[in-house]
Design a protein that fits this description.
The protein is about 25% helix and about 20% strand. It is of the alpha/beta class and about 280 residues long.
Length: about 280
């Protein structure tokens, strides 16, 4: 976040931080390959935006799911929880579309949501990856994909990491967004909160896997803000001395005094935007 605002760490500082790191644990099992609809395993790699989309469903409780066992447990429907559908572009991690439902959507509602996402973005994927939920593992969904010349592919059953990209977004949606607010119970207010989180996620939140770029920057092919000329607050530090990666030139004279300013996306304090300004 600071590098995007223009303040880079010194290369020697990063070197000391790396030496002080705790030894990394043993590598975990490699995520399973994606399995095609014809059950022949084949790896799919995204080569350009809108090449591969991921779609998935998740549940967001409005208060909490802890309760007694049947017959006293609560059903997974509104007002106990919301059902959310999301579509994400694999290459850029950009959220292409999101929708909220009072109860688990059926296959027709999911197809309508995907069709709306295609129209809004004026783009359609070559592959669309999902789990084997009843909304996706059906003849109607496969016919819908075939009419649009999109190939459906499905994550390996019971294998962690087969749809990791969309699962990672869902974690961000909950941890950095919805769990930090009082969950709306109004069907008109809930989409407003989701749209705000998606706007912040696409335009303001950098990703390590994207080299510090935001999803919109990667999707549109824009260079990362981390590569813009940087500030140098140390007055006697030589301007030609390299900073930590990505290395950039110094703007202005060394010794500039800076003030950290934090804005909030659409006034929501759980969606920060970090900036640096010249101190008076």
């Amino acid at each position: 976040m600071l590098a995007r605002a223009g303040l880079h760490l010194c290369a020697t500082t990063v070197g000391r931080m790396l030496k002080a790191r705790i030894p990394t644990p043993k590598p975990t099992k490699i995520p399973a390959m994606l399995v095609a609809a014809d059950k022949f395993p084949r790896v799919v790699t995204a080569n350009y935006p809108n090449h591969i989309w991921h779609v998935d469903l998740t549940i967001v409780p409005t208060g909490g799911f802890w309760t007694a066992w049947l017959p006293f447990s609560l059903p997974q429907v509104w007002p106990v929880c919301w059902w959310i559908a999301a579509v994400i572009d694999h290459l850029s991690r950009r959220l292409m579309g999101i929708a909220v439902f009072r109860k688990q959507p059926d296959g027709r509602q999911i197809r309508q949501f995907l069709a709306k996402t295609v129209r809004q973005n004026k783009a359609k994927p070559k592959y669309i990856i999902s789990d084997k939920g009843p909304q996706f593992w059906s003849k109607a969904f496969k016919r819908w994909c075939r009419r649009r010349k999109t190939r459906p592919r499905f994550g390996a059953v019971g294998q962690y990491g087969s749809i990791a990209v969309i699962e990672r977004f869902i974690r961000t949606l909950k941890d950095e967004g919805l769990q930090r607010i009082l969950m709306p119970l109004n069907l008109r207010k809930m989409p407003e909160e989701l749209i705000a989180i998606v706007g912040w996620y696409n335009t303001c939140r950098p990703h390590t896997s994207l080299g510090g770029r935001t999803p919109d920057e990667r999707y549109q092919g824009i260079s990362s803000a981390c590569r813009r000329p940087r500030f140098e607050p140390r007055p006697c530090w030589p301007s030609h001395s390299p900073c930590a990666s990505p290395q950039t030139k110094v703007q202005g004279e060394p010794g500039v005094r800076l003030r950290l300013v934090v804005y909030y996306y659409e006034g929501r304090k759980h969606l920060p935007i970090v900036t640096l300004k010249h101190a008076a």
